[in-house]
From TrEMBL, chain A:
GO terms for cellular component: plasma membrane. PROSITE patterns: TAT. The lineage of its organism: Bacteria, Pseudomonadati, Pseudomonadota, Alphaproteobacteria, Rhodobacterales. GO terms for biological process: siderophore-iron import into cell. This is Iron chelate uptake ABC transporter family permease subunit. Keywords: Cell membrane, Membrane, Transmembrane, Transmembrane helix, Transport.
Automatic annotation (TrEMBL), chain B:
Gene3D superfamilies: ABC transporter involved in vitamin B12 uptake, BtuC. Belongs to the binding-protein-dependent transport system permease family. FecCD subfamily. This is Iron chelate uptake ABC transporter family permease subunit. GO terms for cellular component: plasma membrane. It holds the Pfam family FecCD. The lineage of its organism: Bacteria, Pseudomonadati, Pseudomonadota, Alphaproteobacteria, Rhodobacterales. It is found in: Cell membrane. GO terms for molecular function: transmembrane transporter activity. Its main location: membrane. The keyword Cell membrane applies. One of its GO terms (biological process) is siderophore-iron import into cell. Keywords: Cell membrane, Membrane, Transmembrane, Transmembrane helix, Transport. InterPro entries: ABC_BtuC-like, ABC_transptr_permease_BtuC. It comes from Paracoccus aestuariivivens.
TrEMBL record, chain C:
This is ATP-binding cassette domain-containing protein. It is a peripheral membrane protein. Transmembrane segments: none annotated. InterPro entries: AAA+_ATPase, ABC_transporter-like_ATP-bd, P-loop_NTPase, Siderophore_ABC-ATPase. SMART domains: AAA.
Length: 317, 317, 252
């Protein structure tokens, strides 16, 4: 099995990268334990973001029957920023900073998952099976949120605005360690659910008519997949902020590396590729270039270029 | 054909309202005697009203032209990367030749806008014809990519404030006599579109039809791209990004009177002016005497209209 | 036997099917014919639960469509709609392999791959088995979908215009194959057919539809007459006989 070999290779690479991340330039003595703990926390954060982004993108592309989309285009980013703005506007800078991070995190994830479920549920549940139209609705709602954000932003004073700006930039360095247990539980739930669906996702990828003919409850599976997507995207957005195009690179690499269309292979491969890319990128930027803040920007930029490349190459499907 | 006179009447009414409403309370009737009132009227109120009307009309016409060029109703100059490309062009000129005169900046913005729109057209020509909803999604993602490039470059060069001024919610509160006249260029480009209306209508039927009727599809396409690019670039540089006008107005007009562009372009222009002026007035009145940018108002109003259009009309383009 | 009672269907204000009640015989090849827009495809898609029922009911060998689990229906009937491109990049063998999914639900065994090979060979696709769907012609893809439907190994096969994209030889071969499935393996086939002579040559039972109603049904000899067809298509049609089967002439 070629897929198994790919997975083993990736697992080995991931192991190497993780080992390097943990052990490179480790100080001796008392600082050692402290540095190890710090690195382990950061590592877990990067792993969670990578895994959820990879799996969410593959799921979303299967449901949308399209390989140039990522779930983040559906307004998750602008909703996240709108929430930051509203929180700053409501509580002020001091209040915003004093918000208990766990509550804030759960609240953000909750609102995003709730709104996404309402959107998918009402649009697809009523028998609108036009998935591209649903996606377009999500994108337009994103524009709406952005406008509302600009509207609320008008009310803020420059200091508050700066705080919002700070919170709105994706950063892989600012992951809060205290959120990790909750984020781990949510991500694990989403990943397990996705893996359980994997055989049915293969059938879903055939399109609606063949899937129904093969006895799949098409609507239910689509809704379940989109719910998982919403959960995973929300967790990663609430952890590090909005990242839009990273998933696109991951999905592109995944389809390039695996030979088969089986989700049992695609899902783990995408998760591992995303994790390796993130950890490696963070290693290079943080410890070689010494400019950790740039990773998210560079990843977004590369993702955007990759999207253009996909479009121009004509690989729409 | 009573539609056009009726719409004109509404526009005149709104224009009169626009002349009387503002932070300073003056009476237009006394303008001939009161020099202070005359100054405000001639330097601020009249230019502003004219600017709004010109912008609305030109953007709506650019929208019609663009929709004919790409044969899809769900696109507008704001959702195809045109505006973001214009911003990128402006940014490039500002960085490379900071001292260049205004007209050089305008030319750069227009050329960049044209390149961006051409890229979009090239991309969507590769999409399967039946994927009506994919076209606007591709456009929105494309504009997101170009926009993020512009934001990144602006951030790196400390010009983010300019970029945001162009890309975030356009507004007319800064319009004074001497600072809006470029919009006449946009209006002239829209007039050119009316002159060539039949060509665009024929191109909208397909390249084969156009060739069969003795038109060169490529040259009509270039003309159309030039109109869209010039309009968008002028609007972006003078007042900022105005969303949804070019998207929803042509849709509404086409629902009422079909796609005979020679007959519909004047109506589209007037409707566009009415919509923008109404939103601008709304923005001036909601938090009087403070203003809400018309771009923000339109982001909300336009998104609502767009969603309505999305679900009202059957899925064919 | 498929029993259809009081079936109506509308999209918006347009009525597509009006009060259809009929029975489609088991162990026979049934052809649905009629002009464009008659509602043939909609009827087939409703029977195949590709569209939700609005009013009326359909039962398949006594099992009510609305109350039977869709997983169980997939073991009794296979539906082939008109093709749309698929997102996954699949090899032919993998596509046809999905026909076995209702049986193994993701865990294929040796028997499944034997049936897949058989289905591939049955549609002369053995040499193309390792090609990707987007690398083959439209007719070859159509045969691959048919092979997938046959690999599902159900009592009933519902096919929406299966002759699309097929050349004369492959169209004839397909009809032969369907007739063989009916006569040899005791399967039942319901298919929408545009070219009436294929129905005349191969069908056991013909259902003629127009404007959302059934206007005639019965054996080919009963339905495919000059009067019925001229009325059905609003075009003068002559019917002759060739090898004991009706032969419809409409070219002159």
């Amino acid at each position: 099995m070629a897929d198994r070999r790919v997975m083993l290779c990736l697992a080995a690479v991931l192991g190497l990268v993780v080992a390097f991340w943990m052990l490179q330039g480790l100080p001796s003595g008392q600082a050692r334990a402290f540095v190890l703990k710090l690195r382990a926390e950061r590592l877990l954060g990067l792993l969670l973001v990578g895994i959820s982004t990879g799996i969410a993108t593959i799921l979303f592309q299967t449901v949308a029957a399209n390989r140039v989309l990522t779930p983040q285009i559906m307004g998750f980013d602008s909703l996240y920023m709108l929430m930051q703005t509203i929180m700053v506007a409501t509580f002020g800078i001091a209040g915003f900073s004093a918000l208990p991070t766990g509550v804030k995190f759960l609240g953000e994830v909750g609102v995003m998952v709730l709104l996404a479920s309402i959107l998918f549920g009402t649009l697809l549940g009523k028998g609108v099976r036009d998935i591209p139209r649903t996606i377009l609705t999500g994108v337009i709602l994103g524009v709406l949120f952005r406008s509302l954000n600009a509207f609320v932003g008008r009310v803020l004073d420059p200091n508050e605005y700066a705080v919002v700006q700070q919170a709105s930039f994706a950063s892989f360095s600012k992951i809060d360690a205290s959120l990790l247990p909750v984020a781990l539980a949510l991500t694990a739930g989403g990943v397990v659910a996705a893996l359980c669906l994997s055989s049915r996702l293969d059938v879903l990828g055939l399109g609606r008519d063949p899937a129904i003919s093969l006895g799949l409850r098409h609507q239910r599976e689509v809704l379940a997949s989109l719910a998982i997507v919403a959960l995973l995207v929300s967790v990663s957005t609430a952890l590090v902020g909005p990242i839009t195009f990273f998933g696109l690179i991951v999905a592109g690499l995944t389809h390039g590396l695996t030979r088969s269309p089986r989700h049992a292979a695609l899902l783990p491969v995408s998760a591992m590729i995303a994790a390796v890319t993130l950890i490696l990128g963070q290693l290079v930027f943080e410890r070689v270039l010494g400019q950790a803040a740039f990773l998210s920007v560079v990843i977004e930029f590369a993702g955007g270029l990759f999207f253009l490349f996909l479009l121009i190459r004509g690989r729409i499907r | 054909m009573r539609l056009l006179p009726a719409a004109m009447l509404v526009l005149v009414g709104l224009a009169c309202a626009s002349l009387t409403i503002g932070a300073a309370s003056i009476s237009i009737l006394e303008a001939s005697r009161d020099p202070w009132a005359a100054l405000i009227l001639m330097q601020s109120r009249l230019p502003r009203t004219l600017a709004v009307i010109l912008t609305g009309a030109a953007l709506a016409v650019a929208g019609v032209v663009l929709q004919a060029l790409v044969r899809n109703r769900f696109v507008g100059p704001e959702t195809t990367g045109t505006a973001e490309s214009a911003t990128l062009g402006l940014l490039a000129v500002t960085i490379v030749f900071p001292a260049s005169p205004l007209w050089a900046k305008m030319v750069a913005a227009s050329v960049a806008a044209m390149l961006g729109t051409a890229l979009f057209v090239a991309v969507i020509r590769r999409l399967p014809v039946r994927e009506v909803m994919l076209v606007p999604i591709a456009g929105l993602v494309l504009s997101g990519v170009i926009g993020s490039v512009a934001t990144f470059v602006g951030w790196q060069t400390d010009l983010l404030q300019y970029v945001n001024g162009w890309l975030l919610s356009g507004e007319f509160s800064g319009v004074l006599a001497g600072r809006y006249e470029l919009l006449w260029v946009a209006a002239a480009a829209a007039g050119l579109a009316w002159f060539a209306a039949d060509r665009f209508a024929i191109l909208g039927l397909g390249d084969n039809v156009a060739t069969g009727l003795g038109l060169s599809p490529a040259s009509v396409m270039r003309l159309g791209l030039a109109v869209v690019a010039v309009v968008t670039a002028m609007v972006i540089t003078t007042v900022g990004l105005i969303p949804f006008v070019g998207l929803v107005v042509p849709n509404i007009v086409a629902r009422i009177m079909g796609d005979n562009l020679r007959a519909s372009i004047p109506v589209v222009a007037v409707f566009g002016a009415v919509l923008l002026l109404a939103c601008d007035l709304l923005g001036r009145l909601i938090r009087y005497p403070y203003e809400i940018p018309v771009g923000t108002i339109l982001g909300v109003v336009g998104a609502a209209i767009f969603l309505w259009l999305l679900y009202r009309r059957p899925a064919h383009g | 036997m498929i029993r259809i009672s009081d079936l109506s269907y509308r999209i918006g204000k347009a009525t597509i099917l009006r009060d259809i009640s009929t029975e489609l015989p088991k162990g026979a090849l049934t052809a649905l014919i009629g002009p464009n827009g008659a509602g043939k495809s909609t009827l087939l898609r409703l029977i195949g639960r590709l569209e939700p029922l609005q009013t009326g009911s359909v039962s398949l060998d006594g099992a009510d469509l609305a109350s039977t689990r869709t997983e169980d229906l997939a073991l009794r009937m296979a539906v082939l709609g008109q093709q749309t491109a698929i997102a996954s990049r699949l090899r032919l063998r993998e596509l046809v392999g999905f026909g076995r999914w209702p049986h193994h639900r993701g865990r294929p065994c040796a028997k499944d791959s034997a049936i897949v090979d058989e289905a591939l060979a049955g549609f002369a696709l053995g040499d193309l088995a390792d090609r990707f769907i987007d690398e083959i012609s439209g007719g070859q893809a159509q045969r691959a979908y048919l092979a997938m439907t046959v690999a599902q190994d159900t009592d009933w096969l519902l096919l929406d215009e299966p002759l699309n994209n097929l050349d004369m030889a492959h169209a004839r071969a397909l009809m032969c194959r369907l007739a063989e499935l009916v006569r040899g393996s005791g399967k039942s086939v319901v298919t929408v057919i545009h070219e009436v002579n294929y129905a005349a040559a191969w069908a056991d039972h013909v259902v003629a539809m127009k404007d959302g109603r059934i206007v005639a049904q019965g054996t080919p000899h009963e339905v495919l007459t000059s009067e019925t067809l001229s009325m059905l298509y609003d075009t003068p049609v002559t019917v002759g006989t060739h090898q004991d089967r009706p032969l419809i002439l409409h070219h002159v």
